[in-house]
């Protein structure tokens, strides 16, 4: 890879590839089409094609948009000087962005479908505390993009390692040990992707499909009523008693089948040919069918390590792993990092060991939220049930209570499972939080990534000596709800003591 780096001189001003002119044209047409498609749709529907001046305006807007993007293309440049990535852009309004290499948290190579057609990549550089989500270099060939990524990540790693040698020789020894025993490349097989695709994101996709189905039903009803309401009513009345139940069952199972197939196809397209390996203390993942991605994550800047597993995935020894990093800014709630679908337990353990130089923690023994939480949630659940049954009693509708009582039992079971599965462990400089009902999430939060600790209590919690612990990190806030207040105080003191004693740096 060093030879590849030497083929390019990034210390001088570098321009985008000439083939990126096709990207300029494509993005221009897409921008204009997205802005004017409602107007064009109205013109086509009403067949008012004689408005030549409207098409003239569209043509002028297209030319101006293309000229603007063309100027941005020719006046865009990037270089690396004195351990800084410098981006220059603009003609009349010039701007220069400089990012220190040791502040870079992630370097991604992305290739959308239009980029694949012309053989170019987008390089996205994510940093903490920047005004924008990322720095984007849109339009360089694969070899140059790979060389730039390699230079940014290895140069940044050299800075980090040199600081560690001065401040902490132990960390340097751990790095040598990890280089002596590198893990093999992890490749998620097609079978594993199919398994994880069939068993993930049920509720999210199911909710979207239900909302989408209601929209379609409303449109069909409006169409039938506008054309011939009496015909629609006759059909509905004739089929109500005989076919409605059958149609409902078919639609329900059809919706479930659609959700499963949709999840499977989306997973295969997104994570096709998923590979991840370790080089220079960086996790580098590559995946994607229509859109290709190459993502490099520095191991020392991982903020949280999270994995989840449901019942079916447990039977197949599969985990979905999320490696979270620093948010770009407060307005951007999307955490940066990696999602690794379909890893088995051995691969999960290897990844954890690579990042933290430690093994996974035994979670058999741990602290649970106070039992009052289960009681309070159950009492809150009883309120709507009692109100509903009371209304049914006074309206002579108690024969519908068979709907309310099973729902009550189901929701209570979900509340109980949520309480049963929740657990917190503080061990080996990690806070581990396990929670969930169907998808059981396990979050590992290193002590050295905690920026702030606070305990919150409501008036009623104060009387019962219950509180919630808030752990602020660069990747978001982790909250431990409704634990014994005395335990939380001891935990807070121990966390703060370890942070002060070891002088951790969350970056």
TrEMBL record:
Residue span, YdbS-like PH domain: 75-151, 271-329, 419-484
Transmembrane segments: 20-45, 52-76, 243-265, 374-394, 400-419
InterPro entries: UCP026631, YdbS-like_PH
One Pfam family hit: bPH_2
Record flagged with keyword Transmembrane: yes
Alphabetized UniProt keyword annotations: Membrane, Transmembrane, Transmembrane helix
Superkingdom, natural source: Bacteria
Stated name of the protein: YdbS-like PH domain-containing protein
Source species: Paenimyroides viscosum
